[in-house]
Structures are given as structure tokens and as C-alpha cells.
Amino acid sequence: MQSIYLAGGCFWCIEAIFLKLKGVRSIVPGYIGGVSKNPTYEEICKGTSGHAEAIKCDFDDKVILLELILEIFFVAHDPTQKNRQGNDIGTQYRSAIFYTNIEQKKKAEEAIKKAEKIYQNTIQTELSDKLNFYAAEEYHHNYFLKNPNSIYCNALIPPKLKTLKTKYSNIFKN
Length: 174
What we know:
By secondary structure, the chain is α+β, with helices and mostly antiparallel strands. Helix content is 35%, strand content 21%. The protein has 6 helices and 8 strands; from the N terminus they run βαβαβαβββαββαα. Helix 4 links the parallel strand 6 and strand 7 (126-128).
């Protein structure tokens, strides 16, 4: 088992995608990379804590490789937008990979180089080993599953899932 922390905009979207991957054992939405201890969602939304909305992704590297997780990460959001994803604007929505060891850092650097060949604009994804992760409040966990009628989620998540399922059908859970 390995863990990696991924920030790619709203954590509801990233969580919903990574929960669908074979080999992903658990996803915890939370806050990482900032200065305050035990931040709340309200603090994060103000943009004053320095944290990004992120997920802790625990995965079985015998079932799914980190390289594939990172490839999907770069397809699942727009890593060329600095401190935003679409209409979600602020440092809490930045693109970032928080690695747990040097091997993960090297693979993340390689994934960024690979993504640079796909996107026309510069990749804005940060790399960091600042692992001060705080789990989000319980109501954020499995948000898309618990809130199937959310207009926000329904506008963003199903189209992303459809694209990813088409491209990576062999690793998506039914």
C-alpha cells in the first residue's frame, strides 16, 4: 500500500473519480499544504489558511501503479490553471501533488513532463513534501455519492467520469 495526496480543484470531484479506480483502497478528502492547524472548510474557503482542497489516496501498487494514478490525475483536472479550476478560484483550488518519498517525487516529475506534452499551456502543478494533511469534515466524505442531486457535482463529475471511463475502462470499477 502507498499513499499520495492530490489537489486538483474541488475535492468532491477528485474524490468521486478516484473512488472509481480498481486498486484504490480509500480516499479521504481534506486540506493540505497550508499554515494553520486543523483548518475548517470555512477557513479554507476564505483562502487564508494556505491549504489546498485535496484527497489522501491510499492505493495498492500491485493493482494500480502510481504512474497511472498520476496520468489520470492530469486528465481529471486542468493543471494549467493557477489557483483555480473553472469557476472555483483561489489557492485552495490549486493543482498540487504532495509526495511521501523521493520515488514518488521522481514519478510526479515524470508525470508533469508527460502532461506538458499534452497541454498547450504551462503546467502549474506544484510538488511538495509538506504533508500536514487534515481530514475534512465528515459531510465532505463521499460527497457525490451522498448528494446525487447536487447541481454543482452533476455539472462537473459525470462528464469527467465518462471521459475517464472511456479512456481507462479496464481500471474502472462498475
